[in-house]
Amino acid sequence: MALQLEIAALGRDAENDLRSLTRWIAEDETLMSACSGTLRSSGPPRSDHMGLGFDILQLALASGFSAGSLAVSIAAWMDARRGSPRLRLRRGSITVELSAETSDDTLAAVWRLLGEEGAEQDHADRSGDAP
Q1: Hey, CA dihedral for 113, 57, 98, 90, is it positive or negative?
Q2: Which of 12, 33, 46, 49 is 20 to 30 A removed from 124 (C-alpha atoms)?
Q3: Ranges of the chain with pLDDT below 70
Q4: Contacts of 3 (CB under 8 A, 6+ apart)
């Protein structure tokens, strides 16, 4: 079963950050066959936009190993970006915010937590039990 994650960029240039992150992930050789993503909007178009403004990246990862690879890829993307990109990652009821100051070790630990906690939540959702 694939891990389902949502990533939101926090900041004034959120749509461009998400587009950049999407391209980065698509070009990462360690994720090419294990991760797929789509951009979407979390609401109706803003009055100052022509069309929908994309503010969510939805990812499907083939395995927990892919989540670890994705964590490394996101850390590298954040290091490569100018400014201070901030991201909000969500899986089920678990939400984590990351900034450019987040260390690789912290990011890896967050993804392990998302994978383990999320798997427990997925099991509870399928069985009808609340955690």
Answers
A1: negative
A2: 33
A3: 1, 42-54, 63-65, 113-131
A4: 59, 60, 61, 63, 64, 66, 67, 91, 114, 115, 118
Q: What is the pLDDT of residue 72?
A: 82
The pLDDT tens digits for 97-129 are 888 777 777 777 777 766 665 444 444 443 444
CA distance 98 to 89: 8
Do residues 95 and 117 touch, judged by C-beta distance below 8 A? no
- Tell me what pLDDT residue 24 has: 92
pTM of the predicted model over 0.90: no
The DSSP-derived string for the chain is: --EEEEEEEESTTHHHHHHHHHHHHHH-TTTTTTEEEEEE-SSSPPTTSSSPPP-EEEEEESSHHHHHHHHHHHHHHHHHSSS--EEEEEETTEEEEE-TT--HHHHHHHHHHHHHHHHHHHHHHHHT---
Look up residue 11 and give its two tokens.
């900041």
